[in-house]
Amino acid sequence: MKRDIVISIELPQAPAQVWAALSDAETLGAWFMKNDFAPRLGHRFTFRMAPQRGWDGLTHCEVVELDAPRRVAMTYRGEATGEKVIACAGVRSDVVKSAGKGLFASLDTRLAFTLEPSGTGTRLTLEHRGFEGFKLVVVSFVMGMGWKRSVFPRLRALLEKNARG
Questions:
Q1: Among 9, 80, 152, 153, which is least packed, fewest CB within 10 Å?
Q2: pLDDT tens-digit map of 19-67
Q3: Each residue of 7-22: b (16+ CB within 10 Å) or e?
Q4: Residue in 162, 125, 159 with CA at minimum distance from that of residue 18
Q5: Distance (Å, rounded) from C-alpha 89 to C-alpha 29?
Q6: Which of 116, 155, 142 is nearest to 30 (CA)?
Q7: Which domains does the chain have, with CATH numbers?
């Protein structure tokens, strides 16, 4: 069992503006996660969030592909228990929460962003690949929802704010 997340969105901003939001550590931290990212092939860095039940808040990464200002890809590794996935999914059942405590998943995936000019600005495509096995396929569905419902809206808001000056 295997699943990848692939999401494309249209943004009204020019590719250079979108690239800046992906490649500047401070700006990336404003819409995604705090980090020590640098757009340099081979650079190892960490995405950081506040620890949550079932997750230490750390995602360990390395830039493995860089074609500035068009594409960046990185390894994306972390560990979490089923409690984290259940919390993200908004499940409120004590029985399900209890079952989730016994589940553990180690994430070893690859995250890439590709930018292409479009008639309206920029087409941004996210590819998050490498979810294998039942537990990680479930994780991929939750993460896909997070990209669509939470992360990309924060990116859009930041780009709009920057465009207004």
A1: 153
A2: 999 999 999 999 999 999 999 999 999 999 988 777 788 999 999 999 9
A3: eebebebebebbbbbb
A4: 159
A5: 23
A6: 155
A7: 2-164 (3.30.530.20)
